Amino acid sequence: MSEKKEIKQGGTQKKEEKKKSSAFWLWIIILFILWWFNNYTLKTNSVSMKSAKVSSKMRFAVISDLHATKHGIKNKTIFEAVDKEKPDVVFFLGDMYTRESERELMSKPVELAEEFISTGYPVYAVTGEHDTDREYINDLENAGVNVLEYESEYIDVKGNRVHLMGIDNVYYSPTFNLGNEFSTDENSFDLLLAHIPNYEKFAAFGADLTICADTHGDMVQLPFLGPLYDTETKTWLPKLSDKELKIYDKGFFDYDGGKMFITSGIGVYPGPFRFNNRPEVVILDVEPKR
């Protein structure tokens, strides 16, 4: 009798161990899927603003911080997500590969640009602190990309006169002043492209729209609490630790006469730590203000 009882208890114990093992692996699979979804699936972030300076809707596609890798989000995925939205202009906002990458990876953003251009999309670019190699920039230009290195030009977008400016700062000195290089134009829609955000200086300049990148949306976004860590101020849980602290992580930020927009970009540099902040391409519409 006792022997049967021991056999029964042993069987029950094995079943419990099997259940625990199954539950453990189920959680591993769930966590892996969540990690993969947050770091290696692409979303389209559609945003819009209004301006009295435009008479018809303009649509811009913003691609940034690709930090090209062999196993990251593919060019085909990025192209198809943008092409589906039929933008008027495509912007590359820098750090499209990581510093000291091999040539194969440096060529990925060039190939992406070539695909857009061959399909008929005008592409404008600024560089970041990583993608500064002159050969890479030459390759972009040879592909037909307009690389703006402290340059500006007027372009027509759907009958709207756009004053497009681009800067390639890898840092900002205390005396940085955009007014030394450019002037705003009250008869045009002033649009500034810059990889690294600098809210105070950009607000002082006063473009109708400034589009930036670099922050990666601060990678980990906690529900209701915002970024886990703010790279600009080097602060953990910045929205909790200092309610007066200004955080420029991603999205729109208003200033007098215009707005700054920051995209969280695509790549997972320095590692695949994104949470609640998926890789994105941005479709940004500028609509007439009635």
Automatic annotation (TrEMBL):
UniProt source species: Ruminococcus flavefaciens
Domain Calcineurin-like phosphoesterase: 58-217
Protein's UniProt name: Calcineurin-like phosphoesterase domain-containing protein
Family matches, as Pfam families: Metallophos (PF00149)
Key words, A-Z: Membrane, Transmembrane, Transmembrane helix
Transmembrane feature ranges: 21-38
Keyword Protein transport among record annotations: no
GO terms, molecular function: hydrolase activity
